[in-house]
Amino acid sequence: MAIDFTLAPEHEEIRRRVRAFIQETVIPAVPDGLPREEYLRVIFALRREAKEQGLWLPHMPREWGGMGLGHVELAMVQSEAAKTRLGPWVLNCAAPDEGNMHTLLHWGTDEQKERYLRPLLEGSQMSCFAMTEPEVAGSDPTLIRTHAVQDGDEWLINGHKWFISNARRASFAILIAKTEPDVPEGSRGGNTAFLIDLPQDGWHDVREVETMHGSTGHSEIVITDLRVPADRILGGRGNGHRLGQYRLGPARLAHCMRWISQAETALDMMVDRALNRYSHGSLLADKQGVQWLIADSAMELYQCKLMVLHAASKIDKGEDFRTEVSMAKHFVANSLNRIIDRSIQVHGALGYSTDIPLANMFQHARWARFADGADEIHQMRIAERVIAAYRDSGSTNAATGGLPL
């Protein structure tokens, strides 16, 4: 039976190299309080070093300058890189650029790949993905109100977007707009993806949305009479929903890979605290209540890793991975929140303070339960597929991983 959770020697070597680069080079190079000019100089120098060490674009094919890793191998790279928030960006496999690279590679024309994909791969440009709108539910793209009307060889676009990550640093956007106004409500064929050069007349970056962890690059955009050439359609007219779903599936799993790293960091900190904090006659590690927090976190982290590896293997095999990715996205996002919360509890007032990173990690973790699909939407889709599997075969096995047990 071909079930093997070990890495090939060459991939184990890649993991070792990524870990060493992140721990020994990246983290020490960016201490807290670095002046902005020095910070920028350092992080771009780190990117150059990643290229030199052959750790650039782990998710892209070799013919496009990447490392040619599959999703299973990418899981190990993302989890090592995400030990620091800068890690995925330094290796050029961070959101939203990572998902946009996959999208352009799959859907772009040759001209679009050279104009938009190539600079992303080289690290000379950044991008954004503009789909979410404040007036309608972000988890239902069929409700999008931003609309594009054909005017000769151009399209005229008007609308309103928000939480567009990276917009202020982007050289272009992949924008989702409704082009087919006559399709029935709920139809998935009404939207089209456009490539928008930035900055451009008609694209107004109104503000950076303040969140519970500060201003973090999520912009509100008002689009007014923005003109786009017809050859800037990405993936064909009416294919915006298909393109978005193609992008979001692997992107959700890449988020999970990075979240596992954060959860593991929180668990490491929890155990270290328990081994070094003395209270009421013994170390915290000797107290059953604290042991339960550690045990629950370890079991959840184990489940997270297995779910991500299995979903990644289905993507690599070209199998239908939608249910497994939905399950992983829901479970890992919630586990991340719970494990960080337990770690804060074991640290007490120190964990609640900003003297250590747990409070900031907890603030960042909260978005995981609605980003790239709210918990409830994933639960709805999972339930639909479980019911459908039973109707088709009299068994739910196909919707619970299709595993041989």
UniProtKB/TrEMBL annotation:
Gene Ontology BP terms: fatty acid beta-oxidation using acyl-CoA dehydrogenase
UniProt xrefs under InterPro entries: Acyl-CoA_dehydrogenase, Acyl-CoA_Oxase/DH_mid-dom, Acyl-CoA_Oxase/DH_mid-dom_sf, AcylCo_DH-like_C, AcylCo_DH/oxidase_C, AcylCoA_DH/ox_N, AcylCoA_DH/ox_N_sf, AcylCoA_DH/oxidase_NM_dom_sf
Domain Acyl-CoA dehydrogenase/oxidase C-terminal: 238-386
A Pfam family per the record: Acyl-CoA_dh_M
Alphabetized SUPFAM superfamilies for the sequence: Acyl-CoA dehydrogenase C-terminal domain-like, Acyl-CoA dehydrogenase NM domain-like
Organism superkingdom: Bacteria
Location of the Acyl-CoA oxidase/dehydrogenase middle domain: 128-224
Cofactors named for this entry: FAD
UniProt keyword annotation of Thylakoid present: no
Any one cellular-component term (Gene Ontology): cytoplasm
Swiss-Prot/TrEMBL keywords: FAD, Flavoprotein, Oxidoreductase
Gene3D superfamilies in UniProt: Acyl-CoA dehydrogenase/oxidase, N-terminal domain, Butyryl-CoA Dehydrogenase, subunit A, domain 2, Butyryl-CoA Dehydrogenase, subunit A, domain 3
Keyword Flavoprotein found: yes
Boundaries of every Acyl-CoA dehydrogenase/oxidase N-terminal domain copy: 9-123
Entry GO MF terms: acyl-CoA dehydrogenase activity; flavin adenine dinucleotide binding
Subunit and partners: Homodimer.
Family of this protein: Belongs to the acyl-CoA dehydrogenase family.
Name of the featured protein: Acyl-CoA dehydrogenase
Source organism (scientific name): Acrocarpospora corrugata
